[in-house]
Every structure is written in C-alpha cells, then in structure tokens.
Design a protein that fits this description.
The structure holds 2 protein chains of 2 kinds. Chain A is an all-alpha fold. Chain A has 7 helices and no strands. Classes of the chains: A mainly alpha, B alpha+beta.
Chain lengths: 171, 294
C-alpha cells in the first residue's frame, strides 16, 4: 500500500519536471554572465524548453503551464505582463498543430523547425513590445538574439533529450 | 489510461477534441492581451506584482549569480597578470597626470572654500547611499534592466539614481522589499535630462535598446563635438546635477550617439544614491506618465 503511494508520488514528481525545468530556465536566463556584449543578445532559454516539451511531451507541459512560465519571464525580464505569456502560448499552439509532423523526425528537422518557430517568437516579442511601449526597439539586437537562441538550441536539446530518456522514461 | 491520468493532472487535454484545445488557446491568449492592457491602464498594480515576484526569486538569483561573479573575477585576474608590465607603465604616466590634477584640485578647493565663505553659501545635504550587488541582467535585447539585491528594507525608493564606478547606471524603477529593478540609461524607455559639460547645452539622453543612447531635444543649431563629456543636468528633479554619464561619439548620420561610462556587462556592485530628491515622478504622476516611463 505504502509503496504504491510512493510510486505514485514519484511519478507525479517526475511528470512535473518538464514544467519545473522550464521555470528554472526562465530564472537561469536572467543570471548575469559578465561577458561583454552578451546581455543584449542572451538566448531565450525557456523558448527552447517550451518547443522541446511541446513536441515530445505536451501532456507534461500543457498550454496553461506555458502561459505561467511566460508570466514569470515577463515579471523577471521587465517586459510588459502578457508579452512572453502570449508568445509562449502561441509557440505551443503552432508546434501542437504540427505535432504529428515532428514525431520521429531527425534532429536537423527539429532544429530547422525551431529556427522557424523562434523567428516567429522573436518577431512577436519585438512587435508586442513596440505596441505596448509605443517605441521601436533595435531590430539588429533582436536579430542577433534570435541567431544566438537558434545556435544554442542543440546544446540544450541534448540535455532535454537525455532528461526525457532517463527521468521521464517510465512516466 | 496513462494519457487520461496526465490529462486530469495537468489541465488541458493532450489529444482531446480540437475544439476544446482551440478554446483553451484563445482563452490564454485573451488573458495575455488583457494583462497587457491592464498593465497600460494600471501601472502601479502591475509593478507591485512584478516587485513581489522578483522579491520571491531574488534569493535564488542571488545565489546563482555568485559563482558567475567569482568565475569572472578569476578570468579577470589571469588576464590582468599577463598585462602587468604595460599596465604599470600606463599607471605611472596616469599617476603623474593625476598628481598635477591633485595640485590643481587642492588650489581650487581652497579657493572654493574662501569664495563660499564670502558668499555665505549653504551647502546641500550629503547624499546617503546603499550598495547592492547585481543579481540579474534581464530583458535581453528588449529591456535593458538589472536586478539589485537591495530594497525597501535598505531604504531604497523609486526614482533614485544608481551609479557605479565612473558614472550613471540608471534609475530605480521598481522596488521590492529586498530587491530593486534598475532601468539602465540604454533602455528604450529611459529619458535622462543631461547637459554637455563644456558648453552647458541641455539635452535629453534617450535610450534605444542599443549600447549607444542618443541625445535628443538639443536646441537648434547647438554645436556638439565628439569627445565632449555628458553629465546629468538636474532638471526635472530626477537626479542631482553633475553625475558623469558618458562622452559624445563622432556621428555619421545626423543623430548624436553617446558612449556611456558604465557598461552593462561590467556591472557587479552598484551604489543606489539618495540625494533627498523626490525622484522623477511622485506617486500620482507616476501612474499617469507611466505609459511613457513604464
């Protein structure tokens, strides 16, 4: 009896990790690295997690969880509340509509998909900020941030895939 | 069976009917846009929520930012070691120049005291300050702000000037009980009244989310020279006059760009200075003007 309870607790804990990892990436993305010129173009880490988990385990990272992660990103980054929430939910929606397509595809295709999704996401962040602040942010910085985000994706994807195969194998 | 369990655990169904999914998405997107509108309408509430959230995460960021800072210091020490010889020569030259300045400053200072006594000059109050560590560098390309681990508990309040080493960093924008958000002078929403030190021409330093904020609202026909120092003017009661901000860069296209003295990447410890001024906005005008000032 007791062991079943703990087994269930273990499963619940494991199934929460995609969401918690996404939150961790939101926070990690804010840590100052003191690399010259890096702060302006730092990759949008949670975007990668949202993309990855939506493809492979949308059951563990539903749209509502993505929305919440977006709100935390808004609060910490200083962007208007709702901007990243809207962007993350849109990413979730876009990926879910193509979820069948992504199943079992090679990493290159997944990466290519991310480059398109991230392009849409960064454009949307730029546009929403411009709308709320009534001023245009530097397009160049946004573009470089996009490139860095796409470039960093494989590094994080390796970790997320490993996580998925070990921690979430039974979940 | 497995799927159903997750569905009940996590709200939106995974592969349920498309209709339910679509409604879920539309609802969330509407909620996001409603928040954006609400943020425009009632800035105070949203900023208070933001301050609470940041306060909650601040201890985590405080811990996370420590190893990065110490790693950074190790790298810096190592590179400095390699350049000791050159640096030494440079410092010797600089020291000579500074000694000249010192004698000049001593002379001016005594002259100043004499003149002040002749004029019965009443000196302003000495500013108090709080030193804090930068625990987060937030917003990426879209918002230039940093979080500092000092807050209401330490007596920090909104609108105070934040300086580091050589010059102005920005101003306190949101205050939590143990953390503050500092809007950097390079941010899109930053507007600082400044003056060109040599010519006393007034202008406004406007950030545009690049590393080079621009001077705007110069009087027509004003002459600006690359290399001129920019300091705060003290207008608008935001900051006291005379805090160094940056130097004017040679311009290619009509805009006048400024190179700030303080660089976002180098920020580790900052001073939040209380000059006893009211800050750029009082509570009521903060809500009205916040559309522009966020």
């Amino acid at each position: 009896m007791k062991s079943i309870f703990w087994q269930r607790m273990d499963m619940v804990a494991r199934s929460l990790t995609p969401f918690l990892l996404t939150l961790v990436l939101v926070v990690l993305g804010q840590v100052p690295l003191h690399i010259p010129g890096f702060a302006e173009i730092a990759p949008i880490l949670p975007l990668m997690a949202v993309y990855h988990w939506t493809i492979y385990r949308p059951d563990l990272l539903p749209a509502s969880a993505v929305f919440f992660a977006g709100l935390l990103q808004d609060a910490l980054s200083g962007m208007p509340f709702g901007v990243n929430a809207a962007v993350f939910v849109s990413v979730h929606m876009a990926v879910m509509s193509q979820q069948v397509f992504f199943q079992g595809k090679s990493f290159l295709i997944i990466w290519l998909g991310f480059s398109m999704v991230a392009a849409g996401a960064v454009t949307m962040i730029w546009a929403l900020n411009a709308m709320v602040f009534a001023a245009f942010s530097s397009v160049e910085a946004a573009f470089i941030q996009y490139l860095v985000t796409v470039g960093m994706f494989p590094l994080l994807a390796v970790l997320l895939v490993r996580w998925q195969r070990t921690i979430l194998a039974q979940v | 069976m497995k799927n159903r369990k997750h569905q009940s655990l996590h709200g939106l169904p995974q592969q349920g009917s498309g209709l339910v999914n679509r409604f879920g998405y539309i609802g969330l997107l509407l909620a996001a846009f409603a928040l954006m509108l609400l943020g425009k309408a009632d800035v105070m509430v949203m900023e208070r929520v933001r301050a609470h959230v940041i306060d909650g995460v601040a201890p985590i960021l405080d811990v996370l930012s420590r190893p990065m800072a110490s790693f950074d210091r190790v790298v810096e020490e190592a590179t400095a070691l390699g350049q000791l010889r050159e640096e030494n020569a440079q410092i010797k030259i600089e020291n000579q120049r500074l000694l000249q300045w010192q004698s000049a400053a001593r002379k001016l200072s005594s002259e100043n005291i004499q003149l002040k006594s002749l004029l019965n000059f009443a000196p302003g109050a000495e500013p108090g300050f709080v030193t804090g560590r930068v625990i987060a560098d937030t917003g990426g390309a879209f918002v230039h702000s940093v979080l500092v681990n000092a807050g209401k508990r330490e007596g920090v309040s909104k609108g105070q000037a934040v300086i580091a080493g050589k010059g102005l960093v920005g101003r306190v924008h949101g205050v939590g009980s143990r953390s503050v958000r500092v809007l950097l002078i390079t941010d899109l929403n930053s507007r600082i009244p400044v003056v060109i030190e040599a010519t006393r021409i007034r202008a406004v330093l406007a950030g545009d989310n690049t590393e080079r904020p621009r001077l705007i609202h110069l009087p027509p026909g004003a002459a600006v020279n690359p290399g001129d120092r920019i300091v705060t003017s003290g207008h608008g009661g935001a900051f006291p006059p005379g805090i160094p901000v940056g130097i004017i860069l040679p311009s290619a296209d009509g805009t006048i760009a400024v190179k700030p003295y303080v660089h976002r990447d180098r920020l580790e410890y900052v001073r939040i200075v209380d000059y006893g001024l009211q800050g750029i906005l009082d509570a009521t005008s903060a809500a009205e003007g916040a559309g522009a000032a966020r």
